[in-house]
Amino acid sequence: MKIQFPDILFIFFSLLLPLYFMISEVQVIYLDKHPENIEDFHFFCENGKNQIDNWELILLEAENKLKSYAKENNLEKIKVYIIEVKNGAISTESELGNNGFVKLWVQFDKN
After folding, report:
1. Do the domain assignments include residue 32?
2. Burial status of residue 57 (CB atoms within 10 A of its CB: 0-12, 13-18, 19 or more)
3. Which regions form coiled coils (predicted)?
4. For residue 20, is it within any domain?
5. Total domain count for the chain?
6. Are the beta carbons of 91 and 60 closer than 8 angstroms?
7. I want to staple 55 with a disulfide (CB 3.0 to 4.6 A). Which of 40, 44, 85, 98 is the partner?
């Protein structure tokens, strides 16, 4: 089997293009332990748009907002600690519904 120039280009771009996007993307790190020094963290709360939104969707929207903020300010790393999450609840005849939310502690780093 002879390797031709288009094959080399395909291999080159298929290996390097994903690497480029991994390097240029803002890195989000989720902390599983309570941060020792929360003075460096900022509080961030994201609410659901409606009663159907679950907390995972709300967290993804919050992550996208945090990434866009980090890109605008040339920040490379975001550390996130999840404080509290709640799914939305649909209204019924006997109970009022409510929107879901996520509450986060967020720290931005340049390196």
Report:
1. yes
2. middle
3. 45-79
4. no
5. 1
6. no
7. 85
